[in-house]
Amino acid sequence: MSVSRAVRRASTRRTTATVDAPGIGGVDVAARPRHDEVMIEMIENAPDGVLGFRAVGEVTASDYESVLDPAIDRTLQSQEKVNLVIVLGDRFERYSLGAMWQDTMLSGKPHRVWGRCALVTGHSVIAEIIHSLAFLFPGDLRFFPLDQEHAALAWAAGGDDTGS
After folding, report:
1. Structural domain count, the chain
2. What separation, in Å, do the N-terminal and C-terminal C-alpha atoms of the chain show?
3. Rg of the chain's alpha carbons, rounded to an integer?
4. Same structural domain for residues 21 and 84?
5. Which residues pair with 107 in a beta bridge?
6. Is residue 148 part of a domain?
7. In terms of domains, do 89 and 125 share one?
């Protein structure tokens, strides 16, 4: 290993940072989002009757357990159907295997509880995979590009029938 290039990996509970120190001079640190933070954010301006979430960083099973699942359960206490908008934008990195499992667990809820679900993303591979599995989803599923987040929220609320 060259003295001019040392790479160390620092990690705490679920936080990872890569330190690249070329030579004795500068240190360049590229830190990923902290994983002890919640990586599913609620969309605060979602219309009544719509749950809106924005995924950032790496989404894990604990994010589903602490944010998404309780929000869906609370919604079902006050309304018959869940209308959902999920945004996978520029800050989204990936789903962990555990998060994917939690996602499949959502489809295990009774079919009658699902209303409209909008996926807003610029990640074409993810959109294509989900589109190919859409027949498994019991509700009405539509896809929207990132610049159409407001249209997705309106559609999920029962508005005009746009999307792909």
Report:
1. 2
2. 52
3. 19
4. no
5. none
6. yes
7. yes
